[in-house]
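Notebook, bench 3.
Goal today: get a predicted structure for Alpha/beta fold hydrolase from Flavobacterium amnicola so we can plan the truncation constructs. The sequence was checked against the plasmid map this morning, with no discrepancies at the termini. Length recorded as 349 residues. Pasting the sequence as submitted so the record is complete.
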Amino acid sequence: MKLKLLLCFSLFTVLLSGCKNKEDNCKNDYLDFSQRDDQATGGIKMIPIKTPAGEFKVWTKRVGNNPKIKVLLLHGGPGVTHELYECFDGFFPNEGVEYIYYDQLGSYYSDQPNDTRLWTNERFVEEVEQVRIALGLNKDNFYLLGQSWGGILAMEYAFKYQNNLKGLIISNMMASAPEYNKYAEEVLGPKLPKEVFEQIKTFEKNKDYKNPKYADLLFKYYYTEHILRKPLNEWPEAVNRCFKHMNPNVYIYMQGPSEFGITGDATLKNWDVKDQLKTITVPTLVIGAKHDTMDPKHMEWMSKEVQNGRFLFCANGSHLSQYDDQKTYIPGVIKFLKDVDQNNFHPKK
């Protein structure tokens, strides 16, 4: 009897050891750069991009190894940086999610040509496709996550190249710039103190965007409510660094001089793809937030308009929900990635 018990105990110990070793091997594989051509640079690659204005290079950085889940991150702006996503470092590695930081052309860590011919949706879509090819991403592993302007770019990419995607995440972005402007003007603006809203509108009417008082009003009353819901002195260092690195030339040309809607002669002012959403068949997660600059009801509608959509609502979040509602945002993104990977994705209509 003692011998049988001893054998059973030994077998149980081996099984436990095997499970543990398997888990350790998975983590070791995730962290192993030894077989990669970017080991010497810590995962960083400067990828050549062909454009109508010549060849330039864009900055990318891969974190981790996962042959089945590779998430390319499209930052907002246009003209800000990958730094808005740096909080992912605290969550994705432990879940085995491979993710790729990427500064689009014109952004801080990439080349910054001064040529407005380059700042079009179509040209940026082709840039993303060139990045995809250079990184070896394909329909068996390629997830695209775009937030704000990055959400516009993600949608535009999917309209043309969704056959290359395994999954799509549209974060904090409506499918219509005119409806975004209307929401800012008719819903968010009136929530501001009346005198503040009137001052903001006066500055914009006079195109006095560089007036320090204009920026002060936006930061104090608007940004801390609808961009990132924390006092300015508590904003994460990565977010402050991102805004410090913003390229205003690209931003103003496409988005306009204000976060309070898309203003002036910005090229995105009339962008609207509501009628095209139904053509997206790839599994899609749409993320909206209660306090966002974007209408969360519109984004919930988007999740139903695409053919295989799911909606993630961040009740405590704003435009940068990955920071001010992490308890909802991060687990929701990870669940989507793993559900799609495990063929367990079910659209929620």
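Confidence is low (pLDDT under 50) at residues 1-20. The two ends are 58 Å apart (CA to CA).
Flagging this for group meeting.
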